[in-house]
Amino acid sequence: MTTFDLEELKDISILCVEDEDGIRDSIVNTLGYYFNNVYEASNGNEGYEMYEYYKPKIVLSDIQMKDCDGIEFVKKIRQKDENTIIIMLTAYSNEEYLLELINLNINHFILKPLNTKKLDEIFKKILSKNDECIVLFENLILDLKKRELVYKNNEVIPLRKREKDFLKLLYDNKDGILSYEKIECEIWIDKEMTSYALKSLVKEIRNKLPINIIKNVPQEGYTLVKN
């Protein structure tokens, strides 16, 4: 029984790489319960092509595969990407073997056989570590701790504190309208917020965003554009 909010995972994309068709079909079907966007590949070479095209937030890969195994596949990713969460599916529990994988900056391991209980445990850990990360839009992540945006091709966009605070506030009010009064209270705090200062802030953020996710609500405030 899943003990966390599945909606927190829905907007996160995942790639499953497994060379045995029957096992892969089973895993993909299970992952569809957690994620809206599930991609699949039958080996490391195909997996890397899918990774480069879709830029998934999470990669779940078997280790032993023909035509580029899981280790070679992960090495290719880690040569230029340290942000994607990588979960390895393995039948081995040998410490020396797992150490080699840890050195590749693998985020999590799941020992075979795979089941929903193991997936629940892993995804709960991922969500707990993502408390400082917010999915603003598909493939657009706001990292509160690092104060930066991460886009689908792992492009990193630095933010000023006030820009980060505005986007966080916009996300917190994503089901409604972020009013001018709330912006002034939460961001300007003990200072007066002028119309010019607010418009300048929003313009600067929009100039940095790869896509426009901020919608004006005339005479009321702003709202977050939904996927």
From TrEMBL:
Entry keyword set: DNA-binding
One annotated GO molecular function is: DNA binding
- What biological-process GO terms show up in the record? phosphorelay signal transduction system; regulation of DNA-templated transcription
Entries under InterPro entries matching the protein: CheY-like_superfamily (IPR011006), OmpR/PhoB-type_DNA-bd (IPR001867), Sig_transdc_resp-reg_C-effctor (IPR016032), Sig_transdc_resp-reg_receiver (IPR001789), ST_Response_Regulator (IPR052048), WH-like_DNA-bd_sf (IPR036388)
Name this protein carries in UniProt: Two-component system response regulator
Q: Record the organism.
A: Malaciobacter pacificus
